[in-house]
Amino acid sequence: MDQQAFMFQALVYLGAAVILVPLAKRAGLGSVLGYLLAGVLIGPALLNLVGHKGEDILHVAEFGVVMMLFVIGLELEPERLWKLRKSILGLGGLQVLFTFAAFTFLAWLVVKDIRMSLAIGMIIAPSSTAIVLQTLQEKGLMKIPAGQNSFAVLLFQDIAVIPMLAILPLLASGNGGAADDHAHPSGMLSLPGWAQTLVVLGAVAGIILAGRYLVRPLLRLVAATRLREIFTATALLLVIGITVIMTAVGLSPALGSFLGGVVLANSEYRHELESDIEPFKGLLLGLFFIAVGAGIDFGLIRDNPLTIIGIVLLIMILKAIILWTVGRYFSMGKDQLSIFSLGLCQIGEFAFVLLSFTRQENILTGEINNYLVAAVAISMALTPLLFLVLDKVILPRFGESDEKEIKADAINEKNPIIIAGFGHYGNTVGRFLRANGVGATILDNDADRVDFLRQMGFKVFYGDASRYDLLEAAGAAEAKILLMTIDDAEKRLEMIETIKKHFPNLQMMVRSSNRNDAYDLMNAGMLHIYRETLESSLRMGIDTMRLLGFRAYAAQRAALTFRKYDERTLKQLSAIRDERQYINTARQFIEELEQIIRNDNRLPDLGAERGWEEEGLIREASRE
Amino acid sequence: MTRILILFAHPALEKSRVHKQLLRSIPAAPSIRLHDLYEQYPDFLIDVEREQQLLLQHDLIVLQHPFYWYSMPAILKQWMDLVLEHGWAYGTGGTALKGKTMFNAISCGGSEASYLPGGRHEYSVDDFLIPFKQTAKLCHMGYGSPFIVYGTHKLDVTGIQEAAKSYGMWLSEIVEAVKI
User: Fold this and answer.
1) What phi and psi values does residue B64 have, to the nearest 5 degrees?
2) Is A334 exposed, middle or buried (0-12, 13-18, 19+ CB in 10 A)?
3) Residue A143 — φ and ψ, nearest 5°?
4) Model confidence over A52-99: pLDDT tens digits?
5) Does residue A417 sit in helix, strand or coil?
6) How far off is chain A from B12, nearest CA to CA, in Å?
7) Are A432 and A440 in contact (CB under 8 A)?
8) Is residue A101 within 8 Å of A120, Cβ to Cβ?
9) Computed from CA positions of residues A548, A553, A554, A555, in that sequence, does the dihedral angle turn out positive or negative?
10) Which one has a higher pLDDT value, A585 or A575?
């Protein structure tokens, strides 16, 4: 590809994505569908701007899947997996097993080829993590049983994809014979079987050991340079390095990067790695979906509309039935079951990965491949519509029982206090209240901290505390006071608006970073404002006075008096400030400081309490 | 060896004329311990456990303070309320302080004469000190006669120094008195 052609392709892909993804999101269809639609738009069916390069791009974009598995691995700490083991293994395992078995059997009835049927079973079994998780989160359904069980099932599917990727090449080897060389481009084939196994085990062990003893020190070293882009480069290097090694030994790069992710999930750099890889992963995955969209054979759909619709309906209905049955076995209520089974009954994006593989390896015939690509895309496109139906038609019938369930949960542990943000500030207040037997519900957006606090027996909700649904779930409607201890000043103002609007009876006590922040909070109508630096700087002042020889009690009283007047000055200045809010802030600050110091000069003598003053008495005594 | 604990309470010592000098004349002896309540507990958060231990380690308890409103500064009242616990200092099983002796060492603005019937304050300082005396009794402690500096508003530097000197002597005397 010469440079101009490359630039043109980049223009087409990025342009389509930038135009269609936001449109799709706005229409409530989610980003995955947006990318697919972008692919359809530039594909042969409509604008035909992709040409023959589509296949190449699909190849490059598959790297996005490798990165996705790395990120999934990063998010799967072994402990968290262990905690969810029952629903992951039980629900997820049974769902994948039954769905796989059912569709393998159905496929066998049609194609009469065991290898092809196995491949089809594997392609259909997983659901769409990207679409479902996003939708559940958007609708605030993650906390309810259906949401949590959906998450567990998706997690198991994500893991199950790895053995699937490992098994697929085996299906090819019997089918084509020559395909083997393609799957193992290295010189591994010259080795005997036991040596191959050794090399594979060695590679896996190597990744685990290197992740533990080599990569962490390396990350520490790189992080110490404080060069953001080098850290990003290191993160990319990690994933690409794993891919190269795994490909060299003939293993799935996806499996390797997943392992690498799990090994690093406990490291202190987890979040940095995640956020560095995230944009690359997102873009490459997007590219992947675009390529898939461009690859949908619309001619096929136009010529056989009934066949396609039949396949899609059959798949979705059967998947839903299996999900319902498995969920039933795990004693979920009917309302939860309908969310669970309709939410997960589409085919997931992994199908595209598997399908591109089956196409390369000639496992499936081109025709079946095309039918399946179309069926996967349509089933995914139907998911947002299904959720709409759930919302408007099905859930209202159960709606009441559903609500009662959630409310009962809240009443069980009704805490009078909600603490938003359990960082350095919030945890001090929270510990203090807990020590006094005051129960508090905690909102925090640090996943590690949330886990830890749950283990310690706190009632914690994970997420953005300014979100209405999270506040609702945390019991904002019943709580008396909300302590706003998050450190993001803008988020605090957002939260205040949300709470004023939806929970007018909830009292707010607000942390403020500094004086200016306190002004903003006053303007927002807050009465209880706590400047985080005030008490501690005054305590430093007290101790300084004591070290200089002032009496402890005098210093203490002086500080308390000073604070009282400072708060008073703050209120006065806030009133003045409103009138000329938009003047130069730096100058304003100096002017204000000047005014504050002037006010200090008008303070009463901080050390003098007239009750303890003798002078008047002495004067009087001398006159006697 | 008889050990003395001086519980000192003055909210504004930096302005004091008399007590600054009284403190200076306390003999520097290992048997005498000065315990400055306002300095130790500027936040009034009295460590009851520690205070009780201190009491147990001493034989004579001297409450040194200005005579505010015929009584004691706020922190000393707080100290009494919290440290002299029921079941420890008084009441059933409250015998921890048995055998100890309590004293007041106070400074009064008015002259000795003003604390006589017909005087400005009508009653004697001894009368005003009855709550202390009875507190000591309830806690199974003896109550020794107090050290009093009268007329502090009229005292000049020499007068204060003399008072301070006699405070030092008084502290030695009460040790002797207990020995007998």
Assistant:
1) -100, 120
2) middle
3) -80, -25
4) 655 666 667 777 777 877 887 787 766 766 777 788 888 899 999 999
5) strand
6) 7
7) no
8) no
9) positive
10) A575
- What are the tokens at A532? 């985080």
Query: For chain A, which domains are there?
Result: 57-396 (1.20.1530.20), 406-532 (3.40.50.720), 550-624 (no CATH)
Å between B85 CA and nearest CA of chain A:
23
Neighbours of A567 (CB within 10 A): 13
DSSP B90: B
- pLDDT > 60? residue A530: yes
Percent of residues, chain A, with pLDDT higher than 90: 16
Closest Cα to residue B73, out of B102, B36, B121, B24?
Answer: B36
Shortest CA distance from A620: residue in chain B: B153
Q: What is the pLDDT along chain B (180 residues), one digit of tens a residue?
A: 899 999 999 999 988 999 999 999 999 989 999 999 999 999 999 999 999 999 999 999 999 999 999 999 999 999 999 999 999 999 999 999 999 999 999 999 999 999 999 999 999 999 999 999 999 999 999 999 999 999 999 999 999 999 999 999 999 989 887 765
In the numeric block, which tokens belong to residue A397? 């019938």
Residue A103 backbone zone (phi > 0: left; psi -120 to 50: alpha; other: beta): alpha
Q: Which amino acid is at A137?
A: Q
Model confidence band, residue A36 (pLDDT cutoffs 50, 70, 90): confident
Band of the pLDDT at A578, cuts 50, 70, 90?
A: low
Can you spell out the DSSP letters for A237-260? Answer: HHHHHHHHHHHHHT--HHHHHHHH
Q: Quote the pLDDT of residue A187.
A: 45
To the nearest whole angstrom, how far is the Cα of A416 from the nearest Cα of chain B? Answer: 28
- pTM, 2 dp: 0.50
Of B38, B109, B153, the CB nearest to A552: B38
Using CB atoms within 10 A of its CB, is residue A581 exposed (0-12), middle (13-18) or buried (19+)?
A: exposed
**Chain A CB within 8 Å of residue B43 CB:** yes
Domain boundaries, chain B: 4-178
Top pLDDT among A444 and A61 is at A444
CATH number of B4-178: 3.40.50.360
For chain A, the first-to-last Cα distance in angstroms comes to: 111
Q: What is the pLDDT of residue A51?
A: 64
Contact of B42 with chain A, judged by CB distance below 8 Å, is answered with yes
CA–CA distance from A609 to each of A552, A579, B67 (Å)?
Answer: 15, 37, 17
Which residues of A fall within a CB distance of 8 Å from B42?
551-553, 555-557
Instruction: Say which range, A252-261, A263-272, A378-387, A593-602, has the weakest mean pLDDT.
Output: A593-602
What ipTM describes this predicted complex?
0.86
DSSP B145: P
**How far is A474 from A501, CA to CA, in rounded Å?**
16
Q: With bands split at pLDDT 50, 70 and 90, how would you rate the model's confidence at A608?
A: low
**Beta strand ranges found along A334-445 (DSSP E):** 417-420, 440-444
Question: For residues A368, A370, A373 and A376, what is the CA-based torsion angle, rounded to 10 degrees?
Answer: -60
Exposed / middle / buried, residue B2 (Cβ in 10 Å: 0-12, 13-18, 19+): middle
d(CA A77, CA A91): 20
Q: Does B11 touch chain A (CB under 8 A)?
A: yes
pLDDT, residue B84, reads 96
Residue in the structure block whose two tokens are 């306190």? A518
> How close does chain B come to A616, measured CA to CA in Å?
10
Contacts of B14 in chain A (CB under 8 A): 550-551, 554, 607
Q: What is the pLDDT of residue A420?
A: 93
DSSP string, A512-581: ESSHHHHHHHHHTT-SEEEETTHHHHHHHHHHHHHHTT--HHHHHHHHHHHHHHHHHHHHHHHHHHHHTT
